[in-house]
Amino acid sequence: AGLLAHDPARAEVAPTSRGRHAHRVRGYFTATVGGFGDVFRSLDSLALGRDSFASGALQDGHLTALGCAQNWTFQKPLFDEATAGLAFTHAADIGCGAATRLIHLVESRPGTTGIGVDVNAEACQLARQNVKRAGLDDRITIVQADMLDVVSDPAAYPQVAEADLVTSYFILHHFVGGEVGGRPFLTAFREAFPAARHVVVADGFTEEPGERAPVTPLFTLAYELFHDVMGIGLQTHAAQRRHFADAGFTVLSEIEFGHPLEWLFVLGSPREGE
Question: Which of 134, 156, 168, 180 could form a disulfide with 94 if both were Cys (CB 3.0 to 4.6 A apart)?
Answer without folding.
Answer: 168
